[in-house]
Structures
1.
Amino acid sequence: MKVTYFIKKRILLILIVIIFLIIGYNFAANVYNNVGYTPDQPIPFSHKIHAGDNKIDCLYCHHAAEKGPYAGIPAMENCMGCHSVVAIDKENIQQLTRIYSEGKSIEWVRVHRLPDHSYFNHKWHVNAGVECETCHGDVAGMAVIGQVNRLEMGDCIQCHRNSDYSQQYAARLKPGDKASIANNVRWYPYLKYIDSLTLKSAEAKGIEALKKDTLDVEPATGIFPHHNASVQCNICHN
C-alpha cells in the first residue's frame, strides 16, 4: 500500500511539473514572439474607428500590400485626405495637421517584425485571397493595435499545407477556359513555384512546357496547385 501511495504521489508531482513547464513555455514563447505587444504611438490611432466603425478597407491605407512585399505605412496625404475636413476639432487631428503643415512625417512605432532570415511577401498573400485578419487578428476591433499571433514558422507551414484559397481562382475561370499557368500567373505570380505536382508534371511533359507557361496546372487530384502553397525552405528563407 505504501509503495502504491508513493508511486501515485510521484506521478502527481510529475504531472504538476509538466503542466507548469507547458504554461511556462507558452508564456516565454509569447514574450519572445511579441504576442501582446501594444506600443504607444506618437499619435493615438484607432483601427476600431477606421476599419471597424467606418469600414475603411485595409488597402486604402496599406495599399502597398497588394503591390509588393511590404504593407507599408500610409503617407500623411492619406490621413489628410479625410482629416482636412473630418474631426478637425480633435486634439489628435490638430496635432496631425500641424505635423503635416511642417512637412514632417509621423514616426510610427512598428508592431509586427519578422526575423531577418525570413521573407514574407504581402502581395503574394493578398492576391491569393488571404485575409489580413489571418495573421494580424481582428484589427477592426482594436482600439490600440497589437500583435496577437506568434507568427512562427509553424503557423506559416500549417496555413500553407491546409488552407484552401483556390475558390477565388476557380471563380475567375469561365466555362471552357484552360487552367494554365499562362492565364493565371498575373493573379498568382508565384504560381509556377508552389506545387510539387506541377513540377512532377513538368518533368513528365518536358521542362520546355513549363518554360513556355503552357503546362496544365490542374493535377490529377483535381486540386489546383495553389490549394497548398510551397513549404520549400528557400521560398521564405532566401
Note: The chain has three domains: 1-32, 47-149, 166-236.
2.
Amino acid sequence: MPDKSDQSKTPKQGKRDKLKERGGAALESARSTVQGLEANPLGVLVGGLAVGLIAGAVIPRSEREKRVLKPVGKRLAEGAVAALTAAKETGKEQLSAGVLSRDAAKESARKVFSSALDAAKTAKGAAADAPSAA
C-alpha cells in the first residue's frame, strides 16, 4: 500500500525522482568503470581499440572526406601497422617472460569492455528519460 507522501507527488515530481535515481545509478556505474580502468590500463587499450574500430566501421564517410583525407589515411595506416607490429612483439615478449598471462589479459579486457558497456547502457537509459521529465 503506497504511503501518503507518494500520493502527494505530482506526475512531474515522480518523473524527476526516477530521473535522479537513474542518474545516480549512471554515476555509480561510471565511477566503478573508472576505478576498473585505472586498475587495468591494458584493458583500457584493448577496449579503446575495439570502440575505435567499431565507430570507424559504423560511421559513414563522405566523398569529400575520402578525397581530402586519403593521403593522411595512408600515412596513418602505415604508422598504425608499425605501432601494431611493435605492440604485438612487446606483448609476445611479456607473455613469454611470464609478466602477464594470456588468460589474465583476456579476462582484463573482458571486464573493462563489460564495465564500459554497462555504463553506456545506464547512461543511455538516463538520457532517454531526460526529455520526458522536463
Note: Residues 13-133 form one domain.
